[in-house]
Amino acid sequence: MSAVFDKIHQLADQVQKGNPADLDDRARACRTAKEAVNDAKSLVESVRTELAEGWHGGAGEAALSSLEDFKKNRDAQAEDLEDSARSFEVVRDALAKAQQEAGSKRADAKTLQDKLDAMWKDHAHGKGNIVLAWAKDKIAKAEALALLADLELVVKTYDAVLLAEGLKIREKTGQVWELAGSEKRNIAEIGALILREIPGIAALVAKNPKLRLALATGDWDKIMQDPRVAQKIYDYFGFKYVKGGDFYTTGEHSVQRYLGWHDLYDKLEKVIGAHLDHTSADGDNMEFTDPKTGKKYRLELWKGSYGFGGAFGGEVGFYTSDGKGNSGYFSAAQGDDQIKVTQQIYDKKSGQVYFTNDGQGADGTDKRHFWNLAIRTQPGVHPEDLGQRATIEVRDPGMRDRMYDEMTRYATAHPEEHLKITKGSDHPPTLSYDWQK
Q: Signal sequence: where (predicted)?
């Protein structure tokens, strides 16, 4: 029995080692750096304004353009710093809450342990009834195991917050990277955390009779209405429900971000119960290369049914490769490579729009993501019933033109796809398509 109490104390000690004040300091450091970045931006802007009055011609305009780019970069850096400050505050609050709960559980365990020790001490001195003592001992053990389970849940909940917010911080560039102060978790560790959490999610469902019934009938909408289950699924798998649109989407920190994209993934459709139309079905992919950097980009489109026919929707994925080798693997687009997508899934015959994902799931307010996914849990809708249209916004007209040219090439080579592409504005750089395969 002492092993259970020892475990409770060990877990409580583990949580208490964290220092919310340190996280507060990091948040303040981010905002201090943000102010310095804004000051630098203001200085650059004032210099640019003064120089603009006297600089003319190609060289002058190029220099002014470089200063303008520098100013925009400072804006992005300031936004990263503010986002990181907020992430540190989220972790700070989660740690403070975990420490409070851990302290309470440890105090309860200490009271229970003292009570148990006193009971057996009295029995050793001839006081009390052995049958009653054994009954109380069993009750105390059950209570101790419940305390341990509750404390383990406290630790896992905090770890989920730490993982989600830590990934956001460590994906930032520039000064934010240094302020993060720790290395990115590797894929094996992510996988271990996910596998470790599955029993916890199952336990939450098992405790609730309504959720057990929902699981038995495949009613995922009902399951996701439980805030604790929904939060854990979002923290570890990235999926969340968009109530206003009645569809599921994914966050940028999802496990799919680490898996990237490989040609063989499409061959796993049947394993996950998907029946999809997708581009690159015959090995011809929509890919283009940046002539300046040599970086290769791939755009992937999907639409159809999921969950063995219990759901339907579509996806727009954007991936990158350094262009070296021919492994077929692409990383999920990050930073400036990410795209802003407004995806619409509709019925080809009636024209009815089922739902629109205008960038839900993306971090921050820029709506930029590597993956625009929207899935609704509704059976009986098939790939051939669906059309997908979308507007894609990219970082500059050059990238937009290369994407447009490649999509046009693909559409011409595959008329059976019924893919129509339209070039949009330059400010911001956009294109639109309608896909009716």
A: none
Question: In degrees to the nearest 10, what's the CA dihedral of 370, 371, 372, 376?
Answer: -160
What is the pLDDT confidence band of residue 398, given thresholds at 50, 70 and 90?
Answer: very high
CB 78 within 8 A of CB 36: no
Could you tell me the residue ranges of all domains in the chain? 1-181, 238-435
Written as six digits, the tokens of 159 are 């770890």
Q: Locate 126 and state its tokens.
A: 């001839």
Residue 309 backbone class (left: φ over 0; alpha: ψ -120 to 50; beta: rest): left
Name the residue with tokens 């805030």. Answer: 227
Q: What is the CATH number of domain 1-181?
A: 1.20.1270.60
Cβ 215 vs Cβ 205: under 8 Å: yes
The count of C-alpha atoms lying within 13 angstroms of the C-alpha of 343, restricted to the half-sphere facing its C-beta, is 31
- Per-position b or e across 183-210, b if 16+ CB within 10 A of its CB: eeeeeeebeebeeebeebbeebbeeeee
**pLDDT grade, residue 357 (50/70/90)?**
very high
Kindly tell me the number of DSSP H helices and DSSP E strands found in the chain: 11, 15
**Residue 238 three-state SS:** coil
φ/ψ of residue 308, rounded to 5: 55, 40
d(CA 423, CA 11) in angstroms, rounded, equals 57
Strands (E) located in 379-428? 386-393, 419-426
**Bigger pLDDT: 396 vs 189:** 396
Q: Is the peptide bond before 209 cis (omega within 30 degrees of 0)?
A: no
The answer to pTM > 0.70 is no
Q: Strand locations in 285-418, DSSP E?
A: 286-289, 296-306, 311-321, 329-332, 339-347, 353-357, 368-369, 371-376, 386-393
Q: Which helix (H) or strand (E) holds 275?
A: strand 275-278
Assigned token pair, 208: 């609730």
